[in-house]
């Protein structure tokens, strides 16, 4: 078409204006084309530049990403290294601690093993000596073995019969004690203790116990160089209990030692497991009744072993003994409900272990009687030739009195306590009438009141308060006057009276269920 236009221009002659316009138009077209080409070139150059810039930016981004990734890897390695170091230090510390504990435990085990080995050797030597003596005795009595067995059986049966008879006599003695306690309720006592406390106490509103019971030093219980301060009724009851006890104790050597040891191990196991929980008390009482009734060992011997073990808990009390005392008292009462003579044996064991459970006090009246002999007579222990400290002795007296006081107030539904609050009230009356005020009697009285005061106040109300008033106005002043350098002894009694601790239920008075809720008394 352009060719045709050119040819038309060539064929036809144009005017000058048209020629100029044509040239201008052509020049304009050329200029526009040049500008378009220039613009396209610029755009291509710009696009190329932008592409290069984008490539460079992407390269930088990738380089930054790679750098960051490497940095993160290094940081992660450092963090993992630190964690590993801390963990290693922790594990090393744990290992060192474990090793130290292991070493301590190994030393303890070695020491225990050495101690057990020493005890075993000592026991083996003792058993060997006993075995040799027994073998010698058996060799001498070989021809009389059958007769001896028959005599043993008959002797044990006779002892059981005598125990039953003595139990009846004991019941009569208890009746006399109850009568004394009932008389005590009619008035308050006003005892006037002298320094030696050798005179009987008087009561302002009436005698606390009858005149014959206030005989302080019965003629039939005099000891050389020693005055026995006690109510005559208390000494008679003690003598009856010890008679029953000793008759059985004298027969124990007639039994085979292995039978006694087996029975004693079973009783020890169950007594040591007693806790202040209802289910535990019932279970241990039933287990102990089964052991006592086991025909492998005569019941009287089993009862004696049970009495020894349960009272021996006071010798080395562990932890909170108050709670243990109430739990043991429930077990004693539950066993007694099926085997009545058990109570007599337990009380006899109390009297053997602590004279203040009678109550009685031994007063030296002969200067020739040495201090060591006198202390041993009132209950001090001697080990390796040394008499124990007064603090150790007083701690044991307190424990014995706590268990005794817990026993007299223990009540179980459907079971009568043969040595209950009436006997406890009679004990308190005889104690204050017959015994002097000193550090031993003060410790016994304080422990008894702390355990039994709550129950006695609930039962006797104003009469018990009169007793406390007599203690405050007579016993405490006499105690302070006698033992001026031992104010801490009187402090416990003063605190009990001032703070009216008899209003507070003692710890362990109520047995607990397994959920630790108080439910049973």
TrEMBL record:
Pfam family, one: GLE1
Stretch list, region Disordered: 119-144
Predominant location category: nucleus
Subcellular location: Nucleus, Nuclear pore complex
Signal peptide range in chain numbering: none
Origin: domain of life: Eukaryota
Keywords linked to the UniProt accession: mRNA transport, Nuclear pore complex, Nucleus, Protein transport, Translocation, Transport
A Gene Ontology molecular function term of the record: translation initiation factor binding
GO cellular component: cytoplasm; nuclear pore cytoplasmic filaments
GO biological process: poly(A)+ mRNA export from nucleus; protein transport
Family label: Belongs to the GLE1 family.
Protein name as it appears in the record: mRNA export factor GLE1
Organism: Phoenix dactylifera
Gene responsible for this protein: LOC103709982
